[in-house]
Design brief:
- The chain is mainly beta.
- The chain contains seven helices and 31 strands.
- A hairpin with a 5-residue loop joins strand 15 and strand 16.
């Protein structure tokens, strides 16, 4: 009798390079056993008998999937020599001078708190500790519940709860992460999952600045969620002023190019281009809203904002008591208190206040000249103008060509305010040193810098009075940075034009 035992067919699978014994051979052995077991006689008369081994088959030895020996079960950051040494889908990769088991990933969101997604070799990306260290006591031995592995020290530390301040992920408990831009503990999130009320799922660079992670980020200036957000300001309007949350307090709070803090507490381009009324408040251009708006006003003492007007300790209000008709109002121009006809519409019996010259204008009506017949009738009450009389029109006009539509007029054209065109507090030679003023408009200006020929040969302008020359408005605004005038030309004295050119 021929005795064939399965134990005699035992093959050591550990000697097979891939630790797998071909299943086809296993099936062949089973078929042979069945064949031998079904025959009791043979042609040569030999009696055969199959002896069945009652010991359990070593599945690892024959290559079938089975639970691996405990000593080979290696989790993340555990030493390994090949992929087979690592648990589940973990794979073996080099880190430093050794190799360890790691989880594959596509982005840092796939990794636990305190780990990041980075390539260690040519086999894709893996979740690794942020400090790139696996041989830490708290990594090897683990940490008790409620404590986290401090990768800087290797010790287990108490994790902080939601919204607590933090510097790094392992400052936070459990799956919480440290928000890298706001330094508080918060939850990771998925764009398709809802974050707690008061927060939103937003992307941020991880604490190493190497990869994006998605975190539930507070919509308010402080970390909060639900009812704890009550009374806080949103990040878009982080400053509380008089109980109201607004985007800015001063110009320094605005980050956009050319933006200023507007009167409603929002950042934007200032609609008020008037150099002496630069601040917008409730749709109106005024001198100031806060004391800081008056920093550039004059050098004769400290200025502060009083009812949207810059004032100082040098008795501005007292000086204004001397203002009388035709200049009953008072305003600071270039840091100097000056008497003017108006500062707002309330100062005008009719019409509106043209703040480019602080004079009252009647819509649709031209300026009314004084009706002079001789120079003696043209006297500047505040000494700003050097007046003469144009008997043909009955208008007093300034020898330098300046006007204000109150004392000095443009007999055949319009007086145009220059403060917007100037765009600066600094006056140019030939300009009045006090009060508000303008220049007469004209229709046929010299082109470009042709006015320079007037230095050699005096120019005669039929449109301009005195020694003024009709030039393009851009001659002035290009030099001062102001707002271009909507008129073909303006009459400027030659001395002022020379100052602009040189």
């Amino acid at each position: 009798m021929l005795v064939v035992s399965l134990s005699t067919l035992h093959v050591d699978a550990r000697k097979i390079p891939d630790h797998r014994f071909p299943l086809s051979l296993v099936l062949l052995f089973a078929l042979l056993a069945s064949f031998w077991g079904g025959c009791s006689d043979t042609s040569d008369g030999l009696d055969t008998e199959v002896a069945h081994d009652t010991r359990p088959v070593d599945l690892l030895d024959v290559g079938l999937d089975a639970e691996r020996p405990e000593e080979l079960n290696r989790g993340p950051c555990m030493p390994c020599s090949k992929n087979f040494d690592c648990l589940g889908e973990l794979t073996c990769h080099p880190l430093g001078e050794e190799t360890f088991c790691f989880q594959s990933c596509e982005r840092s969101d796939d990794c636990p708190s305190g780990w990041m997604c980075t390539p260690l070799d040519t086999e894709g990306y893996q979740c690794v500790p942020r400090t790139l260290q696996c041989q830490l006591d708290c990594m090897i031995g683990g940490c008790p519940e409620g404590k986290e592995c401090d990768q800087d020290t290797g010790h287990c530390v108490q994790g902080k709860e939601l919204c607590a301040s933090c510097d790094i992920d392992w400052d936070c408990a459990g799956d919480l992460r440290c928000h890298p831009e706001r330094s508080y503990c918060t939850s990771p999130c998925d764009p398709y999952e809802q974050c707690p009320a008061g927060t939103a799922c937003q992307s941020a660079l991880d604490s190493g600045g190497k990869a994006e992670i998605r975190l539930c980020t507070s919509l308010y200036t402080e970390c909060c969620h639900g009812e704890s957000c009550e009374g806080l300001c949103l990040r878009q309007t982080p400053f509380r002023v008089d109980g109201v949350c607004q985007e800015c307090r001063t110009n320094e709070d605005c980050m956009g190019e050319g933006e200023e803090c507007l009167g409603d507490g929002s950042c934007g381009l200032n609609p008020c281009t008037h150099p002496y009324l630069p601040v917008e408040v409730d749709g109106e251009c005024v001198q100031c809203q806060v004391d800081e708006d008056c920093d550039s006003f004059g050098e004769d003492g400290e200025y502060w904002c009083d009812d949207n007007v810059c004032t100082n300790s040098c008795g501005g209000d007292e000086l204004c008591t001397y203002c009388s008709d035709p200049y009953p109002a008072c305003v600071q121009i270039d840091g100097i208190w000056s008497c003017v006809q108006c500062t707002d519409d309330l100062d005008c019996d009719a019409g509106t206040c043209d703040t480019s010259m602080y004079s009252c204008k009647l819509e649709g009506q031209s300026e009314e000249c004084s009706g002079c017949q001789g120079d003696a009738e043209c006297v500047s009450s505040i000494g700003t103008f050097h007046l003469e009389c144009d008997a043909a029109s009955g208008c007093c006009f300034d020898q330098g060509g300046w006007c204000d539509g109150i004392e000095s007029f443009c007999p055949d054209s319009t007086c145009v305010g220059l403060m917007e065109a100037m765009g600066t507090d600094d006056s140019l030679p030939g300009m009045p040193t006090e009060g508000a003023f303008g220049a007469c408009s004209c229709e046929n200006p010299l082109v470009g810098d042709d006015y320079l020929w007037c230095i050699l040969v005096p120019c005669v302008s039929e449109e301009c009075l005195g020694d003024s020359v009709c030039v393009e408005p851009t001659i002035l605004t290009d030099a001062t940075g102001g707002t271009p005038l909507e008129t073909p030309g303006i009459c400027l004295p030659l001395v002022t034009l020379l100052a602009i050119s040189y």
